[in-house]
Amino acid sequence: MKKQTNNMKKKLIVVPKKKGLTMLIDGSNLAYRAFHKFGSIRTPQHGHVGLIYGFLKILHSYVVRFQPTAVIVSFDTPASKKSNFRLKLYPEYKASRGKKDLSFDYESFNRQIDVTKKVLLNLGIDVISDDKGLGHETDDYLAYLALKAKTKVLIVSSDKDFIQLLDKSIKLFNPFKETIIRHNTCENIVGFKPAAHKEYLMLTGDTSDNIPGYKGIGPVKATEFIKRYGSLENFLNDKKASFPRVTKEGIEFLYNRNRPLIDLFYALEKYPITKVPMIKGEFNNKTLIKILGEYSMATMLKSEFINTIATTKAQMGELKTNLFPISEDISYESHIDMDDEDEETDE
User: Fold this and answer.
1) Which of 347, 305, 337 is nearest to 112 (CA)?
2) Three-state SS across 123-182?
3) Residue environment code for 180-217, b if the CB has 16+ CB neighbours within 10 A, otherwise e
4) How many Cβ atoms are within 10 Å of 274's Cβ, its own excluded?
């Protein structure tokens, strides 16, 4: 088997971590939680506003609980979804998500996402939002920043793809299960160590992303396979290796197809990020009062909420010049208006 790493365009460097904690939030993931948990909240003027309220309420609880020195929130957009390099490799990637649920109010969800972004920016929180179609999705941006950050990192997401990133400095918090997964607890929680977990996903597939696994191999057989060989590559490189109901040709095909779809380390090396579409947040109390007042969320303007976020931003300011070592990779955008004027967006 040819080693595909020879085709890498750029070697991904994992940066040693220092003091501080960067909290990287999967914004779309958390928005769905807020939308479903607080969906009944509405106002006479704007209708449903539960996503906005819930997102901010949950965010505040995480800042209080984890005491981060920096917070960055990333949202997937229509442009990032359509331009994702994985679609060129496998056109059916996330195809099941494209089928609209008629019971889901997409218009309300997207409207509330737009408002939430504006609030976050005016709280001084940087937001990742790709409206240009740069070819990557939230998984890639958060993985990239987690590996590049000089601080310790807490990723907030229920996406199991992030498990492979876990090490002594990177932890994963699942907001749906309220559980923290560390590199040394990972095996007890999901059954595998971080590196082996991505091998398991490549073998079984990922139904949430519409990625098929090896036909006829379920969780039990896949676990047995990974326990025996450690990885798909080890199996392919072992001339004497064999396993019931699989062939070398079948595993090689699966490995070549699923690796760039699932393995974030490989994906970031093979399809490197050249710019992170980061929108710089700037604290603006006047605009916050305007937005939150209009959406009947004046309680969010209480000092216990604002001061917590502002303190985080101030701490971040001390670390900001050293937060990410390759600053030219962080492209600060200004394509989202930070005030509350009604404007057309691409979302």
Assistant:
1) 347
2) CCCEEEECCCCCCCCHHHHHHHHHHHCCCEEEEECCCHHHHHHCCCCEEEEECCCCEEEC
3) ebebeebeeeeebbbbbbbbbbbbbbbeebbbebbeeb
4) 11
What's the sign of the alpha-carbon dihedral 16, 26, 138, 49? negative
Say how far apart CA 28 and CA 128 lie, in whole Å.
11
Q: Is 23 helix (H, G, I), strand (E, B) or coil?
A: strand
Residue 16's closest CA among 123, 168, 204, 142? Answer: 168
Q: What are phi and psi of 213, to 5 degrees?
A: -100, -165
For the chain, what is the mean pLDDT? Answer: 86
Contacts of 268 (CB under 8 A, 6+ apart): 12, 140, 143, 144, 147
Domains in the chain: ranges and CATH = 19-189+273-333 (3.40.50.1010), 194-267 (1.10.150.20)
216 vs 222: CA distance, rounded Å: 10
Report the SS3 class of residue 10: coil
Asked if the model's pLDDT at residue 144 lies above 60, the reply is yes
Residue 73, H or E segment: strand 70-75
Task: Give me the residue label for tokens 């003091």.
Answer: 19
Examine the pLDDT at 344 and tell me if it is beyond 60. no
Give the tens place of pLDDT for each residue, 227-261: 999 999 999 999 999 999 999 999 999 999 999 99
Check residue 215 and give left, alpha or beta (phi > 0: left; psi -120 to 50: alpha): beta
Cα 20 from Cα 71, distance rounded (Å):
11
339 DSSP assignment: S
Strands 205-206 and 211-212: antiparallel
Beta strands 42-43 and 21-26: pairing type? unpaired
The helix (H) or strand (E) run that includes residue 311 is helix 303-323
Query: In whole angstroms, what is the distance from residue 260 CA to residue 262 CA?
Result: 6
7: CB partners within 8 A, 6+ apart: 270
DSSP assigned state of 307: H
Q: What is the pTM of this model?
A: 0.86
